[in-house]
Amino acid sequence: MEAECAWALGRLDGLVASLSAPQAALFAMALLRHVLIEALLQAGFAGTQRGFNEWFSGLEREPQPIGSAPCSAPAIVRTLLRELAHHPWQPLASAATTITAAARFTVDQPEASNDRFAREALACASDHVSQGSSLAGTPLPFERMWQLVVQLGTDPLFAPAERAPHTLILGERQVILEQAAATSPLWAVDANMGKLLHGGGTWSIALPCPGTITAEALQPHLWPGERRMVLARDLSRAAVRLADLIVASCRQAARTDRALGHLRSNARAPLVWTVLAAFAPLGVEQMVSAFGVSRRGTYAIADALVSAGLARRSKVKGMVLLATLESHERITPPPRKSHAPALAPALEEFDAAMADIDALLARQPVFR
User: Fold this and answer.
1) Fewest Cβ atoms closer than 10 Å to its Cβ: which of 28, 67, 124, 312?
2) pLDDT tens digit string along 87-100?
């Protein structure tokens, strides 16, 4: 099991190191979505994945937890976005900054007391992971993860909690019910797991790794050998999921280059497409907030993506959203309007001027 896990970790590190800039941008955006959804699912918000896109666009209410929860879904999202916006890997930091500006799933609820719990959980998890990553050993992370699990098991914040009795008053009678305990915030440990894998030399980049530490690995009844197998199995699965995201991102990058490779280097359409393809659909106001374009500019971007066969317009609850068009879908693009002959010289002069600017930005000479 540990050998299989070591292979998965090494493969993932090699894939990340070989990413081009467009591929890294798409992977970072997909990774951010994966981190947010898995964190909410681990925290007990079971309906997250089904309504995530609508919640992101402000069309749905926040997901509700099953049982008790120490903090709300917006608190977890705010905390993770704030943390990842300062991540040392620039593509992930840029993705978090863009989504923070575009998101509508945190605007309805101001910061509350449970935001403090989410921040403290993330800080406490960071301390535990930092202690584990400082241990000497081989580049393989298994001994450090063992020590991390031991530390987490002794911390009341992360240790598996027992069911607690709850008294319910029905008229003149009192009924004692066994209430499920709140879920341990292991999502905070997953968000910091890249520090442990990077600190020991397993990974060259400290990426968050959702699903690495599960409640099963912290169960006190496990024998040492069983615990090591659970840790290796969960880490291997988490690494394989990230590798799958990279493979999908590379396919999307190739599709983007075929469809939008003719655009200028400062065009906004590829940036918008990165969010659509790897994170979620966008509304007009979201594009204005995230990319600093005017409303008229968003229409031009949408037209370019629709004409290229990459996106489609859809109306959800009265809001027009720009969503990704899968490669197997086909939509007949509207006929392009031809320019008047009198405008042709002016347009050619404009294109030549923009080519000069592109070459200047790229610090390459222009040959005509």
Assistant:
1) 67
2) 999 999 999 999 99
